[in-house]
Amino acid sequence: MKYSAIALSMTSLLALSACDSGPQSSAPASTEQGASITLSDAVNHADRTPAYVQRDEFRHPQETLEFFGLEPSMTVVEIWPGGGYYSEILAPYLADEGTFYAAHFPENTNSDYYTRSLNKFKERLTSEAVFGHVELTQFAPITPLDTDIAPPNSTDRVLTFRNLHNWYMNGGEEAVLSAFRQFHQALVPDGVLGVVDHRLPEGADDEAMANSGYIKESWVIDLAEQAGFEFIESSEINANPKDTADHPNGVWNLPPTLNVEDGDDTDIYKAIGESDRFTLKFRKPVQ
């Protein structure tokens, strides 16, 4: 496969922002001065989306990224960054010393949702200076693409947040295995894959994974090992014991989606909070 990316320098982003008549967003001061910032600075910088900051209570971004062993000089790929919850933390953190690839939805898609989401993300890249030095690539779990998420054997960390259940629901085990193999190809030997997703209790029926949005931790570990990864450890950073994982509309009953048929139940699901999640760390073995 060929490798392709859209590299956006801080200079070009600032120039584009200056031409925009709308509200301006500046990068954290330390990034503008060309100095590295701490992970805490990246998580707490003033340019983060307020609605995303409210989700930190359930997503624990600093603790999660520390668990995955991030350093500012690393090359990092985020898979399917969506609207940019993690991207707006990773971009400034890696801007000075590291490299950040955002592997978003494929350009060639029949999905209107994918197209809208990708275009919104591109707009953020070209209008918000905090996204300096982002390299935009694309990822599909099964459909062959003519580009890679990053050059082979180049990446220190591949991170994916709440995505595996989508690949399974749309393509089964084959899709998840294909994704893991692509991540394995991109990572350097001894590189780390970090995975967060909605957790289905081990005693639940496997069939619940088909449409609930929840998947079993043991199942993920098994597939990752089939793809050549070594399981390192798990963390309860993103656990939520209030979540029973058996809701009528699956994980989407919970915040932030709150897909609730009876409006009277909204407060019940808000009280639960976001889903119970496993946080897993894998390693690409040194041959």
Poorly predicted ranges (pLDDT <50, ≥5 residues)?
6-27, 29-34
Largest sheet: 8 strands, mixed
What CATH architecture do you see?
3-Layer(aba) Sandwich
Main sheet: strand order: 2-5-4-3-7-8-10-9
Mean pLDDT: 89
Secondary structure: helix percent = 25-40%
| Distance from first to last alpha carbon | 22 Å
Q: Could you tell me the strand content as a percent range?
A: 15-25%
CATH topology: Rossmann fold
**Strand-pairing-aware structural class:** alpha/beta
Supply the CATH class.
Alpha Beta
Fold and architecture overview:
The protein has 287 residues and is of the alpha/beta class. It has a single domain, classed as Rossmann fold (3-Layer(aba) Sandwich), CATH 3.40.50. 35% of the residues lie in helices and 19% in strands. Strands 2-5-4-3-7-8-10-9 form an eight-stranded mixed sheet, with helices on both faces. Strand 7, helix 8 and strand 8 form a beta-alpha-beta unit. It is globular.
